[in-house]
Amino acid sequence: MKSLHFSMSPFLFVVLFSLSWAISAHADENFLDCLSLHSNDSSSISKVIYTQNNSSYSSVLDSTIRNFRFNTPTTPKPFVIVTPLHVSHIQATIYCSRKHGFQIRIRSGGHDFEGLSYVSEVPFVIVDMVNLRSVDIDIENKVAWVQSGAILGELYYNIVEQSNGTLAFPAGLCPTVGIGGYLSGGGYGLLFRKYGLATDNVIDAQLVDVKGRVLDRKAMGEDLFWAIRGGGGGSFGIAVAWKVQLVSVPATMTLFTITKTLEQNATKLIHHWQSVAPKLPDEFYSGVTVTRVNSSQDGKMTILASFHASFLGGIDELIPLMQERFPELGLVREDCTEMSWIESILYMGQLPNETLNILLDRTLQSPLLSPSFKSKSDYVRKPIPEIAFQGIWSKLFEEEAHSASISFIAYGGKMDEISDSATPFPHRAGNLYKMVYSVGWQEEDNIRSQRYISWSRRLYSYMGSFVSKSPRQSYINYRDLDIGTNSKGKTSFTQGSVWGRKYFMNNFDRLVHVKTMVDPQNFFRHEQSIPPHFSRLKKNHH
Ligand SMILES: Cc1cc2nc3c(=O)[nH]c(=O)nc-3n(C[C@H](O)[C@H](O)[C@H](O)COP(=O)(O)OP(=O)(O)OC[C@H]3O[C@@H](n4cnc5c(N)ncnc54)[C@H](O)[C@@H]3O)c2cc1C
Ligand SMILES: *[C@@H]1O[C@H](CO)[C@@H](O)[C@H](O)[C@H]1NC(C)=O
Ligand SMILES: *[C@@H]1O[C@H](CO)[C@@H](O)[C@H](O)[C@H]1NC(C)=O
Ligand SMILES: *[C@@H]1O[C@H](CO)[C@@H](O)[C@H](O)[C@H]1NC(C)=O
Ligand SMILES: *[C@@H]1O[C@H](CO)[C@@H](O)[C@H](O)[C@H]1NC(C)=O
Ligand SMILES: *[C@@H]1O[C@H](CO)[C@@H](O)[C@H](O)[C@H]1NC(C)=O
Ligand SMILES: *[C@@H]1O[C@H](CO)[C@@H](O)[C@H](O)[C@H]1NC(C)=O
Ligand SMILES: *[C@@H]1O[C@H](CO)[C@@H](O)[C@H](O)[C@H]1NC(C)=O
C-alpha cells in the first residue's frame, strides 16, 4: 500500500524528486540518466528522448494531436516524450517512470477523442510508438504482424501491394488512425458486418507489462490476451505488435451515396432504414449521416440525410437486392460506383484516389474533421419512433450545430453471431445500430468551446429515452469523459463501474479481475482505465 500511496500523490512525488535530484550522488536518480542506464543501448535512447529543451519537442508532441481542444497553452505537457526504437527503450521507460513517479501516456495514432494518449493532470511521460510501425505480411498464410505505431493506411498499403488487391484487413475508414489504440478498443469499419471487428481478427500480440516483461499470447495467458482485444488502451501494458488474420475480398465492390432532404422525405426514410439496414446481407455496410444545410431551393435550413453503403459485389447484384429490401430509397445504377476494396476506403474518407501513397501520409487531415470536436456514442436496440426525429432535427437547427453531424451505423450480420463475452466489446446481438454525435468548431473558437460541448450534452440528454438503457451503452473507442470521470487520472472501482458498464457491460468484471492480476498497483492508468479491485487486492495480502 505504501508505494501505491506514493505513486498516486503527485505533490509528494515532486518534493521527493527535487530532493533526490539535489542530493543525488547516483546518476540513476535523475529520470533521464535512469533511461540511459536502463536501456541496453544507451547511445541510441538519447536520440529518442525529447524534453522541453529539445528544439523538436513541440513538433513531436503536436505531430498527431488531432483534436485542437487539447493543444492550447494551458494543456498540460509531458516532462519527456520517448519514441522507442525497440522494446528495451519501452522497458527502460516503464522502469524509470515507476521509479521516479511519472505516469505514462501511450500514444500510437493520437486519435483518442479525449486526448488521453498525450494529456495528463499529473507529471507524465509520453511513450509515442511512431518508430515502431513495421508491417510484415505472410500472404500464403493470410496473416500479418503489425506494430502498434503503424497507422491503418500503412497496413492497408502493404496488404494491397503484396496481395495484388486480393486480401484486406477489416478495419476503419480513416487511414491515420493508429493500430495501437484502434485494436485495443475493438475497431469497426466497412467489412465489420462480414468479418467482425478488427480485434476479432487478432490472433497473437506482443505486450510489455508493468514489470517490463515482453509477453506474447502464450506467455500472457488467455485472460490478458482477452482483455487487450477491446478492453481499451492504456490499462494493461504497452502493446508493441499484433498478429492479425487477413481476409479475402473480391476485386469489385460497389459503393453508393444517396442524399435526401426533409422535403424529400428524409425522416420517413431514416425511420424505415432502422429496420431494414440491420437485416441486410453480411456483404453490406450501411450508414446514414445527417447534417443541417441551407436548401438549394429557398436557402432555408433543412436536414440532409446521406445514405451510404458499401457492398462486397458488383452493381448488377446490388440493385435488385436494394429494390427488394429498400425500394423507397430509389437506388439507381447512376448512384453506384464499382471499385476495389482499397478505393472504397478513399471514397468513404472523401480522399483523392489517384495514388495509394496517400495511405502512407501520417499528417493527412481528414476533410470530414473539424479542428476541434466533441463526440458521443449510443446504441439503439429498438427503432426510434418517427415523431422523435423532429426533436433531433430541432437540435441540429440550433446555432452551435453548424458543423455537427449525427451518424447511424447498422449492426447485424457477423456482429450478431459473436458472443457478447468473446472479447471485452459487448455490443453484439440485439443492437440494431450505433449512433455517433459529433460537433465541430474552429480552433479560434476554442475559447467558446464550452458552448459546443453543452450542445452535445443536450442532444445526448434528449436521446436518452430512445436508446439502450441500464446501462446506456457506449463505444470505448469513441471515448467520452462525460459518462464518468475519475479525477486526475486516479481510478477507483466504484467510479470506474459507471463508465465501465457502459463500455463493457458484464465484461467489466472480468476486465477488473485481469487488471488486478497484472497491474494491481494501477501503474498504467488514465481517466478511464480499468481499475484494479482494491478489496480483492487486500484479501490477497492476507
Ligand atoms: C478521424 C477519426 C476516425 C476514426 N474512425 C474510426 C473507425 O472507422 N472505426 C473505429 O472503430 N474507430 C474510429 N475512430 C476511433 C479510434 O478507433 C480511436 O480513437 C482509437 O483509440 C485511436 O487509436 P490511436 O492509436 O490513433 O489513438 P491514441 O490516441 O494513440 O490511443 C488511444 C488510446 O489507446 C491507448 N494506446 C495507444 N497505443 C497503445 C499501445 N500501443 N498500447 C496500449 N495502449 C495504447 C492510448 O493511451 C489511449 O488511451 C476514429 C477516430 C478519429 C479521430
Ligand atoms: C534532447 O536533449 C538532450 C539533452 O538535453 C539530449 O541528450 C538528447 O539527445 C536530445 N534529444 C534529441 C532527440 O535530440
Ligand atoms: C533544460 O535546460 C535547463 C537549462 O539548461 C536546465 O536547467 C533544465 O534542467 C533542463 N531541463 C531538462 C528537462 O532537461
Ligand atoms: C537490446 O537492443 C537490441 C537492439 O539494439 C535488441 O534487438 C535486443 O532485443 C535488446 N536486448 C534486450 C535484452 O532488451
Ligand atoms: C494483379 O491484379 C490485376 C487486377 O486484378 C490482374 O490483372 C493481374 O493479373 C494481377 N497480377 C498478378 C501478378 O497476379
Ligand atoms: C414523400 O412521401 C409521400 C407519401 O408518403 C409521397 O406522396 C411523396 O411523393 C414523397 N415525396 C418525395 C419527394 O419523394
Ligand atoms: C446558410 O444561411 C445562413 C443565413 O440564412 C447563412 O448565415 C449561412 O452562411 C448559410 N450557410 C451556408 C453554408 O451557406
Ligand atoms: C476517383 O475520384 C474521382 C474524382 O473525385 C471520381 O470521379 C472517381 O469516381 C473516383 N474513382 C473511384 C473508383 O472511386
TrEMBL record:
Keywords: Cell wall, Disulfide bond, FAD, Flavoprotein, Glycoprotein, Nucleotide-binding, Oxidoreductase, Secreted, Signal. Residues 74-249 form the FAD-binding PCMH-type domain. Its main location: secreted. It comes from the Eukaryota. Residues 1-27 form the signal peptide. Its cofactor is FAD. The keyword Manganese does not apply. SUPFAM superfamilies: FAD-binding/transporter-associated domain-like. PROSITE patterns: FAD_PCMH (PS51387). InterPro entries: BBE, FAD-bd_PCMH, FAD-bd_PCMH-like_sf, FAD-bd_PCMH_sub1, FAD-bd_PCMH_sub2, Oxid_FAD_bind_N. Belongs to the oxygen-dependent FAD-linked oxidoreductase family. This is Berberine bridge enzyme-like 8. It comes from Durio zibethinus.
